Amino acid sequence: MWGDPVSIEKNTFKDCSKLTDISLSGSVTYIGESAFENCTNMSSVIIWGDITAIGKNAFRNCSSLDDISIPSSCTVIEEYAFQGCSDMDTLLLWGDTNIGDHAFQGCTSLEEVSISSGTEYIGDYAFEGCTSLENVLMWGRSTRIGRNAFSNCPKLKNAPH
């Protein structure tokens, strides 16, 4: 997708089980609510450029999605955006991205998360049930961490608080 700034609107690709890979160019600035929800065979998402926000439920239950890199332009990941992405093992947040409630809940293969110093908050239950999560690298000390953000993460060595 190249050209003028665009948004991927609500429910655009919801339940598209044949969708396996997507690459979003710098022209995409917003991924709307449930845009890719339940795309159960999608394994790769590449986001380039100027995305500013990932909407509620945007990639919810994309169970084959194995890793995601969020560019520095993204300032917010809304509620439930990646909930139930059970194959996701790596999450890279390149900028000061605030994380909504339940955003990564139930990402059972997620092992490591890196959160930049300018992230202001991590929502309630954001990483709850990430049973493979071992390391959370937080580069800032002023991040507000929501209620039970890292609960039910039995392998986590040093839970941020």
How would you characterize the overall build of this protein?
The chain is an all-beta fold and 161 residues long. The chain has one domain (11-161): Ribonuclease Inhibitor (Leucine-rich repeat, LRR (right-handed beta-alpha superhelix), Alpha-Beta Horseshoe), CATH 3.80.10.10. Helices cover 0% and strands 25% of the residues. It has no helices and 13 strands. It has strands at residues 6-8, 21-24, 28-31, 44-47, 53-54, 67-70, 76-77, 90-93, 98-99, 112-115, 121-122, 135-138, 144-145. The protein has a 5-stranded parallel sheet with strand order 1-3-5-7-9, with no helix packed on it. It is globular.
Task: Fill in the CATH topology.
Answer: Leucine-rich repeat, LRR (right-handed beta-alpha superhelix)
Helix content: under 10%
Backbone CA Rg? 14 Å
Largest sheet, in brief, is: 5 strands, parallel
CATH architecture: Alpha-Beta Horseshoe
Domain count: 1
Beta-strand residue fraction = 25-35%
For the termini, the CA-CA separation is: 39 Å
The assigned structural class equals: mainly beta
Number of helices: 0
CATH homologous superfamily placement: Ribonuclease Inhibitor
Order of helices and strands: EEEEEEEEEEEEE
Query: What is the strand arrangement across the widest sheet?
Result: 1-3-5-7-9
Detail the poorly predicted runs: none
CATH class: Alpha Beta
Q: Write down the overall geometry.
A: globular
Describe this protein with a few key phrases.
161 residues; Leucine-rich repeat, LRR (right-handed beta-alpha superhelix); five-stranded parallel sheet; four-stranded parallel sheet; 13 strands; 25% strand; globular
